[in-house]
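Fill in residues.
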């Protein structure tokens, strides 16, 4: 940072890794082979980028902060397999990028800017036809949500959305002192192994998520009451909810946070069946 006269911009979530242990845990979790192509989000000062460059066939590193681009170009100048792109990852068309820079499916490896963790994770999930695996440094509490099981306090819409399309592993937790400047929160590394097919077959994914959102909208209520007050069943009989719960084999007095993905899928299907 001194050499290039860089000041960390906290608005861009700039907390640079200064500890090699989490770095090596991320590399190991990514199970890299010399044939792998890797997208790195937010290379910052290039610590992870350089490690990836020595192990992967090709690395595309997407950095939003213009002041870091000449630094990254300088640090990676000896690596013909590293390409630095100045871009906002949320605006990046992954399909186009992959077509022009990669030969096939790729891995995503990143110490994420925490202020956009959820949209980045959702983007990875939406592009699961191109991404095989993602190793991500996130806030510890996000990692807990991603790995939470039904009935646990961290279990929620994010857990369901991600587990539907990925197998999630907690790799390690990392203290604040591993970064400069230290963030306010603790961090963790998670690995998402993307599935081509969802964990459960859904007839209508958008209705499935409407049901999940309605159920988690009022966590303290029973599943029956949350659905009655939150699910917009315009012009339909509220008895449908009781009938669908019964047909799906779900006790109406349970809370939404105790239902598994499979139970939500059954419930959504029964609701739609009773509505039609
Ligand atoms: N990879 C570096 C490391 O581990 O030390 C830096 C990680 S830092 C937590 C997050 C990085 O993401 C920063 O370099 C920041 O400038 C970059 N960033 C923030 N918003 C971004 C966006 N929308 N698109 C791409 N990069 C972004």
């Amino acid at each position: 940072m001194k050499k290039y006269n860089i000041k960390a911009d906290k608005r861009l979530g700039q907390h640079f890794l200064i500890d090699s242990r989490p770095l090596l845990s991320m590399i190991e979790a990514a199970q890299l082979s010399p044939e792998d192509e890797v997208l790195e989000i937010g290379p910052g000062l290039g610590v992870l980028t350089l490690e990836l460059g020595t192990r992967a066939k090709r690395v595309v590193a997407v950095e939003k902060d213009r002041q870091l681009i000449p630094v990254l170009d300088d640090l990676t100048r000896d690596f013909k397999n590293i390409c630095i792109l100045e871009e906002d990852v949320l605006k990046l068309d992954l399909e186009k990028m992959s077509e022009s820079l990669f030969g096939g499916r790729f891995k995503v490896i990143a110490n994420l800017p925490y202020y956009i963790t959820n949209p980045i994770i959702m983007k990875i999930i939406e592009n699961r036809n191109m991404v095989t695996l993602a190793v991500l440094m996130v806030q510890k509490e996000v990692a807990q949500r991603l790995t939470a099981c039904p009935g646990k306090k961290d279990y929620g819409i994010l857990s369901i959305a991600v587990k539907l399309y990925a197998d999630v592993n907690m790799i390690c937790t990392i203290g604040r002192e591993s970064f400069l400047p230290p963030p306010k929160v603790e961090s963790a590394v998670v690995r998402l192994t993307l599935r081509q097919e969802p964990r459960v077959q859904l007839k209508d994914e958008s209705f499935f998520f409407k049901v999940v959102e309605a159920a988690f909208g009022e966590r303290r209520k029973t599943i029956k009451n949350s659905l009655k007050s939150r699910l917009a069943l315009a012009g339909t009989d509220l008895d449908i909810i009781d009938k669908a719960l019964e047909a799906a084999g779900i006790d109406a007095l349970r809370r939404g946070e105790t239902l598994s993905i499979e139970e939500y899928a059954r419930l959504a299907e029964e609701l739609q069946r009773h509505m039609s």
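The chain has a mean pLDDT of 95.
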